[in-house]
Specification:
The complex is a heterodimer of chains A (about 375) and B (about 240). Chain A contains ten helices and ten strands. Chain A is of the alpha+beta class and about 375 residues long. Chain A has three domains: about 110 residues, 2-Layer Sandwich (Beta-Lactamase); about 80 residues, Helix Hairpins (Orthogonal Bundle), CATH 1.10.287.130; about 140 residues, 2-Layer Sandwich (Heat Shock Protein 90), CATH 3.30.565. Chain B has a domain of about 170 residues: Alpha/Beta hydrolase fold, catalytic domain (Rossmann fold). The chains are: A alpha+beta (about 375), B alpha/beta (about 240). Chains A and B meet through helix 4, strand 3 and helix 5 of A and helix 3 of B.
Amino acid sequence: MSDLLPTNEYRDLFDNAPCGYLTMGPDGRITKVNATLTAWTGVHADGFIGRRLHQFLNMAGRIYYETHIAPLLRMQGFFNEFALDFETAAGERLPVIANASERRDADGSLLLTAVVVIKATDRRRYERELVESRLQLQKGLATERETAELRDQFIAVLGHDLRNPLAAISAGARILQRSGALQEHKHLRVLDMINTTVTRMSDLIDDVLDFARGRLGSGIVLNRDATQPLEPILEQVVDELRTSSPERMIETSFDIAEPVNCDRARLGQLLSNLVGNALTHGAPDRPVRVGAETEGGELRLWVANAGEPIPASAMERLFEPFFRGDVRDSRQGLGLGLHIASQIAQAHGGRIDVTSTAEETRFVFKMPLATAAS
Amino acid sequence: MIFAHGFGCDQNMWRFVAPEFEDDFKVVLFDHVGAGGSDLSAYDKSKYSSLHGYADDLVEIGRDLNLEDAVFVGHSVSAMIGLLASLKAPGLFGRMVLVGPSPRYIDDGEYVGGFTEKQIAELLEFLEDNHMGWSAAMAPSIMGNPDRPELGEELTNSFCRTDPEIAKAFARVTFTSDNRNDLSKVTIPTLILQCSEDIIASETVGKFVRSQIPGSEIVFLEATGHCPNLSAPAEVVSAIRAYV
């Protein structure tokens, strides 16, 4: 190209191009630089010629140039889109994006390397802000996770520690009952109330602990036994609920003909939660119906109630923890009952399905009769 | 004869040097874990939080290949990695060639490493600005198949492309390392190849290494910059050949 003198037009295109432009000889020393780059950097052309590109970069850029850019240029003959920071004569940072390519002769000897730089102050700032915001998000997420874990641990510890004072209250009530010291009807009613409340509170604590365990990863641990009958447990659960809600009707039809490989206490808890839910939300003047049967290798356990159907908007979130529908009854719990029931169902390799119409709302739990240990 | 690459790129750094020795030596090339075609799943943050993790790998490679009295050629930070490996496994290397070595990059009192702590911190930040076309989605195809030509355009920059997190960690380990106390423990013949105008490992640092490693020799190359293995391979080859 040396014997082709550039026309003034080309000279102008080179010098006043909207990008910085420089060339380096085979020894890596700068041979030409255009007016745009000298204007951007405030370094006169004489200040460039004979020196090396990295001398015009900040220290980080110099290290990067030596360890990445120069080797890459030599190995692949070009580089594209490198972010670099020039240092201007005034000591300011000039963020740029740079491309470069080598030109070699027929024998493969390096003739020159052409470098183009484009001012990228805004673009680089934008990218840096993206990186920063990602870092902040990651930090925030880590903190949130830590907090959530602490909260779950706190719930677990709290639930556990609430049991002892409750046991003391329960024991105290029992002693009073046995001593026969209370005779008046009014006092005996207070004693009954204490007992009911203790049971209720104990159930709430169990729910909280089950929830915390599920969240903390250990999940619901099953103690399966297929040899013992399931029906008596289910009857017992329904009886307890009849006692605590004497004004309500609960009809049962159990037909469990085959052994069920399950944790009976847990299925009792599942049923209790489903019936409790039906009593809370069902029409008070209509019976809650409960049924269980084994058929086609499956256990089907269902609870149905009449009353207002579950709104479509609530349907999706029904099994989420702390989800409570319309609170009509002061007895309503933490909103963990259905969540825990579904966890128990899942632990048994089963599931709970819901259908809700104007006639009936029905929860159906299905699980395989003989599952291997989960 | 085993060649180890430094911070930045991969074993391709030796592409103009290593083949010259293939007639006379069994030549071993490798990528440090985290670089080039290495298995990224083998990258263990805590293991590679010091140069010893890399040195242990080098010893493992040597043991696996039953290397004895091998010639070790290490560039940049791998000079110190090789030096540590030679102390861990006596007999593994018979000779060492250290290209652009530096036992410590950050100035410390009288010692001039060439950089301040602030500059190294800036470098770590700066690494964020250049991903070399790295993207997590592309990584598996690139990293696992560095030699597959059909990947065409995606191969751009691949010689020096690394997971940005790993690049940052390697930079931190490299530029905050201090192996000055290990130099005097070296007992095998050692050659230092010192470039001119090397801003990463200056002549002062090269001379310091020479003065601390007992019986070591130093050759001053005419090559400039930090990577004579690429910029002046012939000079590097002849210097190594004269020594081994």
